[in-house]
Amino acid sequence: MQRALEDLIRALRVAGLPISPADSIDAHRAIDVTGFSDRGLAKHALCATLAKSGGEAAVFDIVFDAFFESQAIKTGEAASQGRQQNLDVLPEAEGSALAQIMLSGDEASLSMAMASAANRIGLSGIRFATQRNLLARRLQDEMGMPEVDAIIAKARARSPQTPATARLADVRAAIAAQAQALVDRQFQIYASRTAEELREAQLVRQPLNADEGFSPGDQALMRKAVRRMAKQLADRHSRQRKRAMRGKLDIRRTVRRSLAHEGIPFELIWRTEKVDRPSIVCLCDVSRSVAAAAQFLLTFLYSLNEVVHDLRSFAFAGRLIEVDSLLAQLPVEEAIGQVLREIGFQQTDYGKSLEDFADKHLTCLDRHTTVIVLGDARSNYAGARLDIFAEIAKRSRAVIWLNPEPETYWGSGDSEMRRYERFCHIAQTCNTLAELEHIIEHVLRICLPR
């Protein structure tokens, strides 16, 4: 019973339920009282201890039902007819207890034998889809199916086909099918998210400007990864405007406060520090080579609304436009699509785009503002307007340039990156979601002092 409960808790954790050690202890205590004999009572008791919301309760119901789904082996009509006709005699099977059980059509015994074999081979440890066929084979071997296969082969060599041989072969096929079904079910319970997590881990390190592009499924998975990364960063960096610096006692204020209590420090006063949430201005190149990275950067930043106090976003190619209103009204992916239809895939002109920003938006920069520029700095040999970029750097707290191209390409051809780099506090390659997360983490760290 304890092993089954531990496996169920592991399956629930795989499904995303945050089950703590204390929750596990409560679940064991609940099952000690109810047991598993009354499946409905056990389900309600475990749901009350392990699920903490309506959404978690829905997930619990699905996992619980799948975990305890009936695993009875159906031996088919042939075994039933054989029992009625008393045709269970098969000389080759006389020394095999398993073959005799199969001929008798004892479905309960066969199910118990399969469950026992599954425990011996550690079937609940399945992690990858590629393991399914191998584990199905191992499960049958552990049950003793090679011996049954040899019995069937000998019986057919003696006589091409007899009712008993046909019945044993039918049950053997049913066991093979049930073994595969059990492995598939265990994969869904314990490893259904593993393949997705592996693909996600691969995608966050794949270049965003890859020539083959991304399938719609991969794009959805990447957006999910971006939001998860952003949530983790937000949870890590969310602070109130004032936070106590624990371990640093304000002795002067503590002594002054103790005067009201005859010098006894009943009230300890800790030093505090005012922490402002950062303001970010984002300038995104949405030309063809950078559009994918721009989409994920904006998704990332707009998912940090708990941490970022003020975010203003601009997109540019041949000219620059503000996209805050679109991002406020539409999901990020839809807003980016609309921006691309309006100005995307134009001939990039960094000089003209900087002029547009200086004419209308330069006053939004101050000493609290971090400017993030995402682009390859390839301006098609147009003017770079370094004077405007220098003024942006002068007014801002920091300027960070994220370039999807490798650093060895900077300054080659029509790239103005080496000239812009002089005015940047940070300039580095950023062409994967992993690099993007690292950069945003750095931005929050320098903007939120510890």
Can you walk through the features of this model?
The chain has helices at 2-14, 21-34, 39-50, 54-67, 76-85, 97-104, 107-120, 132-143, 145-158, 163-190, 192-203, 216-237, 251-258, 291-302, 324-329, 332-343, 350-361, 386-395, 417-421, 433-447, and strands spanning 242-249, 270-274, 279-285, 310-316, 320-322, 369-374, 398-403, 426-429. With 450 residues, the chain is an alpha/beta fold. It has four domains: 2-67; 76-195, no CATH class; 241-274, no CATH class; 279-447, von Willebrand factor, type A domain (Rossmann fold, 3-Layer(aba) Sandwich), CATH 3.40.50.410. Strands 5-4-3-6-7-8 form a six-stranded mixed sheet, sandwiched between helices. Helix 9 (145-158) packs antiparallel against helix 10. Mean pLDDT is 79; it is low at 78-87.
What is the radius of gyration?
33 Å
Number of helices: 20
**CATH homologous superfamily label of the largest domain:** von Willebrand factor, type A domain
Which oligomerization state do the chains in this entry correspond to? single chain
- CATH class placement of the largest domain: Alpha Beta
Structural class by helix and strand composition: alpha/beta
Q: Report the CATH architecture of the largest domain.
A: 3-Layer(aba) Sandwich
N- to C-terminal distance: 48 Å
Mean pLDDT: 79
Order of helices and strands: HHHHHHHHHHHHEHEEHEEHHHEHEHEH
Low-confidence stretches: 78-87
Q: What is the count of structural domains?
A: 4
Shape: elongated
Q: What characterizes the major β-sheet?
A: 6 strands, mixed
The count of β-strands is: 8
Helix % is 55-70%
Strand arrangement in the largest pleated sheet: 5-4-3-6-7-8
